[in-house]
From TrEMBL:
SMART domains: LysM. Pfam families: Hydrolase_2 (PF07486), LysM (PF01476). GO terms for molecular function: N-acetylmuramoyl-L-alanine amidase activity. It is an enzyme of class 3 (hydrolase). Keywords: Hydrolase. This is N-acetylmuramoyl-L-alanine amidase.
Length: 191
């Protein structure tokens, strides 16, 4: 009996202490009468200008019943996961290249073509070689962590790039059919 209670206690402690893999999902907010972009942004702890940019609003006016997209707000686990992915995918690339790689992942969370969470996008099939080869388990550099923070602050200002690859290391007929949005270092970014 004591052994059974002890095992249940350990299981309970572990369930509360392990990081949750998918808490940052696409969020939307339905505008209520009397709300403003500022009030909504404050409620969710995100910048009002970012909410405005994410919803292609040239002015701050909104209407009751309107559905607004909100920026991804990841948990500490997810920030670390994204930072480790950026480190593994963009090691040796410029800081701008690292920000762009993180931005692609965040754009995918917002896109209907991919899973609705950071964890889901990063672990989506064979999308990212560091997930497949295990290099995502390596710690992120300070620069990769900083790049992720910048990409999070940049959400809504560039939702174009959904793909990237290094043409010297990979060939893809699927990606060659996509429109190039930019080139940074060894990576080509596409939509």
């Amino acid at each position: 009996m004591f052994k059974k209670i002890s095992m249940l206690g350990i299981a309970a402690v572990l369930s509360f202490s392990l990081p949750t893999p998918s808490s940052a999902e696409v969020q939307t907010h339905t505008v209520q009468k009397g709300e403003s972009l500022y009030k909504i942004a404050t409620k969710y702890g995100v910048p009002a200008k970012q909410v405005q940019a994410m919803n292609n609003k040239n002015v701050a006016s909104i209407n009751p019943g309107e559905e607004l997209q909100l920026p991804v707000v990841p948990s500490e686990y997810e920030k670390d996961l994204l930072s480790r992915l950026v480190e593994a995918e963009a090691k040796g690339e410029s800081y701008a290249g690292k920000v762009a790689v993180a931005t692609v992942v965040l754009n995918r969370v917002q896109s209907d073509l991919f899973p609705d969470s950071l964890h889901g996008v990063i672990h989506d099939g064979i999308q990212f070689s560091p997930v497949l080869n295990g290099t995502i388990k390596q710690p992120a550099s300070e620069e990769s962590v900083k790049a992720v923070h910048e990409a999070l602050a940049y959400q809504g200002y560039d939702r174009e790039s959904l793909y990237f690859y290094n043409p010297d290391k990979a060939q893809s007929s699927y990606l060659s059919s996509k429109e190039v949005t930019t080139r940074i270092g060894n990576h080509v970014f596409l939509r």
